[in-house]
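Protocol step 4 of 6: structure prediction from sequence.
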Amino acid sequence: MNDVLAEVRTLLPGFRERAAATEDARRIPEESIAELRDAGVFRMLQPHRYGGLEEHPTAFYEVVRAISGACGSTGWVASVMGVHPWQLALFPEAAQEDVWGDDPDALLASSYAPVGRLTEVDGGYRLSGRWSFSSGCDHASWLLLGALVTGPTGSPVDFITTVVRRTEAEIVDVWDTIGLRGTGSNDLIVRDAFLPSYRVLRNFEHSQLRGPGQQVNTGPLYRMPFGAVFTSTVTAPILGAVQGCLDDYVATMIDRHRLSLGGGRFVEDPFAHVALARAASEIDASVLQMDRNINELHAAAEAGREIPMELRLRARRDQVRGTERALTAIDMLFKTAGGNSLRSDNPIGRAWRDAHAGSVHVANDIERTLALYGKGSFGIPVEDNLV
C-alpha cells in the first residue's frame, strides 16, 4: 500500500486552493513544502540508511501525478526535488553524509546543463558558472549542478554532476513564465566555490549504471538507469496535470449549456463524448506503458540481471510518447472547454499552460529520443546520457 499517497490525498484540496497564489508568487508556498515533507514525499526515493523509504519508483510517480492534478507547479517541484535523493544516493558516502548527516530532511535543487567550469586543485575542484531552470531552489539546502572538467588547454575532458552548498550560490530571480509559474525555477550563480573531490559524480558512471554510493546503498532502486528514473520524473507531473484537467473538465462541463450551435446541454454533445474518451485513453496508455517499463527495469535490477539497452531505449521511447500523448489529450479538452478556459484563474487553462511548459524540458525532446530508439532497433550503437 502506498501510505504516502494516502497522506497526500488529504493535502490535495489545500494544494488546489493555493494554486492561483502559487502562480502569483512564482514559487511554492512554504506551507506546501512543509506538507510535502511531512507526508514523506521527499523521502520516497531516499535510502533507508538516512530514514528514507526506498519506495518503488512507480509509487513515487503515482504520488506526483496526484499532486500535479491539484497544482501542476507543486507537482513539478515535488517530482524534481523528490528524485534528487535517488541521485545523491549514487555519490560517494562522504557526499551523502555532508547533505544528510545532520539533516536527513535536507532538500536538493538542480540544474544539470554542463555550463559550470570545474578546475582541479589540491583536494578537489573550484567551480564557477551560471545555471538556469533550477526548480524549487529557494527551498533547497544543497544543489546538484552540471559542469565540465577542463584540461590544461581549456578544452572539456569530462562531464560531471556536482554537489554544492546552497549558501555558495546566488539565486537570480528571473522566473516569469506562462506555464509552471509557481515552480520558482530561477537562475543560480556560483563564483569560485571549492568542492572536495568526493562531491562530484561522472555522468559516464550514470550511463554505466554505476555510482560509488552503490557500495552502501545496495537496493535495486539504485541500480536503475538515470535516463529512465529522471526523465519519468519530468513526464509524471505533466500526466498528472492533464488527468487533473480531465477531472476538472468533467466537473465543470456537466452543467454547461451551449450558447450557440443550437444550444443544449454540453454533456449531450457526442463530439464532447469522443474528446473525453480519447483524452482519457491517451492518459491511461501513457501511465500503463511507463509503469510497465519501470517495473521491468526494477525487476531486472532486483534480480541482478544486466539491463538490456533495448529496454532502456523502450523506456525513453514511451516516456517521451507519454508527454506527447498528454499534450494531445489536453489540447482536445482545452479546445472543447470553451472561452472560460482562457481566464488565468481557470484550472483547465492553468493545466494546459503547465503541461505545455513542462513539455519543453530537455527530457522531452521527442523527435531526438524516438530517433535513438530507431537507431537501436537497427543495431546502430546508441550513446546518450539520458538513456
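Step 5 (inspection) to follow. The chain has three domains: 3-88, 107-202, 224-377.
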